[in-house]
Design goal:
By secondary structure, the protein is α+β, with helices and mostly antiparallel strands. The protein folds into two domains: 10-177, YojJ-like (1 (3-Layer(aba) Sandwich), CATH 3.40.1700; 184-425, DNA integrity scanning protein, DisA, N-terminal domain (YojJ-like (1), CATH 3.40.1700.10. Helix content is 33%, strand content 26%. Helix 2 (34-48) crosses helix 4 (93-100), helix 6 packs across helix 9 (279-297) and helix 9 (279-297) runs antiparallel to helix 11 (314-333). The chain starts with 9 loop residues before the first helix and ends with a strand. It comes from Gimesia aquarii.
């Protein structure tokens, strides 16, 4: 039997936030008192449970005085569009419910001030635009217009994310702090599944460059992995933010036109297997080619992910945008009920894929570490329908990988590993 897990109350969450804020070395003076943090979190949590015109409340707040934005308030055409209310509004769940529709989650934040006495009020609105949605840690899009002040995001009922500016610090879902999870991208087993794809891309890159233009500069072997992972991280973030849920399935390259597809999937739409499905590969080759050219001009022997992040180049910037758009496109395809199915080269196979098969999966192992050297057995039927279909697929097609996103934002990576059907809870 699984142990009963207690909910994290606002004071517990506030303590965890203060600890993590300090661990990340953000200025402690930029945080309100722990008591006031608990009140802020409680108010946002209560607001998340409300509905306005039938829609769940979704909003972002930044806890900072108007004086932090004196320059923006003085200049109407600044990059951050900061607006001050003539009369501050009360910081209550019902006031947040009313204002959330105007301060759209993707485009704006409500600005909250906490006085020395602990009084809280909404003094204005900060329009950020949507660029922040595409920002990831260790990404080329690193510059944040927001100061590293306390930001609290309400994504849906009971789903709260706390950040310093745009940098995620802590997440709570249905009263539980999300601490029980891993980042499978940092494992050994997951990159190994895509090893042949990386090798073939690097080989094709060498073939594209004429002998007369060859140099000693080469791309780091892990570069393809880092780019691909940034695309998938962005997809998962977008799907979680949209609150719809979805499933992403990766199949080996030899399975993209196999009869097994018809045995395991009924697609809403299946794509012709021509060159149009190779957009990710084409973009990757163009990006690596240009990255090597820039690296050669800088005298680099090996172009690493870190080198790439530092490169200021117009052509690379356009390729970045194209990869971001591809990630958004994949996310849109995941809006359709069913699964988005790709091969490991990110070639499109189909979307809206209903998983077939009548095999029954009674149990699954939950990984207790990145490599699943330790795991515990859980009943498969304790999970939802989407999860159970992923378990059934990976149990039957043991070289498939499924990434399942619940409507509440929980993410699981499912794979057959160490001769066991296993899932890893994803903690970004």
């Amino acid at each position: 039997m699984m142990e009963h897990e207690l909910s994290a109350y606002p004071d517990v969450m506030a303590k965890a936030l203060v600890d993590r804020w300090q661990e990340a070395m953000y200025p402690p003076e930029d945080l309100p008192s722990q008591k006031n943090i608990a009140a802020l979190l409680d108010t946002m949590y209560q607001a998340s449970l409300l509905r306005e015109e039938g829609n769940a409340v979704r909003c972002r707040i930044i806890v900072a005085p108007a004086s932090d934005f004196a320059n923006e308030l003085a200049v109407g055409d600044s990059q951050l569009h900061v607006l001050r209310f003539t009369e501050p509004c009360e910081f209550t769940p019902h006031e947040l419910r009313k204002l959330a529709a105007a301060a759209g989650y993707y485009r704006a934040l409500l600005a909250v001030d906490v006085s020395a006495e602990g009084a809280m009020s909404i003094w204005g609105m900060i329009v950020t635009g949507t660029t922040w949605i595409n920002q990831l840690e260790d990404d080329r899009i690193r510059h944040s217009l927001l100061p590293e002040r306390l930001v609290i995001q309400c994504l849906g009922p009971g789903h709260i994310i706390v950040a310093a500016g745009n940098a995620r610090i802590l997440e709570s879902l249905s009263g539980k702090l999300l601490t029980d999870g891993f980042d499978p991208f940092r494992s050994n087993w997951l990159p190994q599944k895509f090893g042949s794809v990386r090798t073939s891309l690097l080989a094709e890159l060498d073939e594209l460059i004429p002998d007369s233009e060859k140099s000693n500069t080469r791309m780091c072997e892990s570069f393809v992995k880092d780019i691909a992972q940034s695309v998938v991280r962005r997809i998962l973030r977008l799907v979680r933010n949209r609150g719809h849920g979805g499933m992403l399935v990766y199949l080996p390259e030899e399975k993209n036109d196999s009869p097994l597809l018809d045995q395991w999937f009924r697609f809403r739409v299946r794509f012709e297997q021509d060159d149009s499905i190779n957009r990710f590969r084409r973009l990757m080759l163009s990006l690596m080619k240009r990255g090597r050219e820039v690296g050669q001009a800088r005298g680099l022997e090996v172009v690493t992910w870190y080198d790439y992040l530092q490169m200021q180049d117009a052509e690379l910037a356009e390729l970045d945008k194209a990869l971001i758009e591809l990630g958004h496109f994949f996310t849109d395809l995941m809006n359709i009920d069913g699964s988005l199915v790709l091969d490991r080269s990110f070639r499109l196979i189909g979307f809206g894929g209903e998983i077939l098969g009548d095999s029954h999966t009674a149990t699954i192992h939950r990984a207790l570490d990145l490599e699943a050297e330790r795991s515990v057995i859980e009943r498969a039927d304790s999970s939802g329908t989407r999860h159970r279909s992923a378990y059934r697929l990976v149990c039957g097609l043991q070289d498939a990988i499924a990434v399942v996103v619940s409507q509440d934002g929980e993410v699981r990576f499912v794979a057959h590993h160490n001769n066991k059907l296993t899932y890893w809870p994803y903690l970004p």
